[in-house]
Amino acid sequence: MMKKLLLLLLMASTSTAAWCQSAYWQQELHYTIDVSLDDQQNSLQGFLKLRYTNHSPDTLTFIWFHLWPNAYKNDRTAFSDQLLLQGRTDFYFSSREQHGYINRLDFRINNATLPTEDHPQYIDIVKVYLPTPLLPGAQTEITTPFHVKLPKNFSRGGHTGQSYQATQWYPKPAVYDSKGWHPMPYLDQGEFYSEFGTYDVRITVPQDYVVAATGELQSEEEKQWMRKMNAAYREQHAPP
Question: Do 157 and 34 form a contact (C-beta atoms < 8 A)?
Answer without folding.
Answer: no
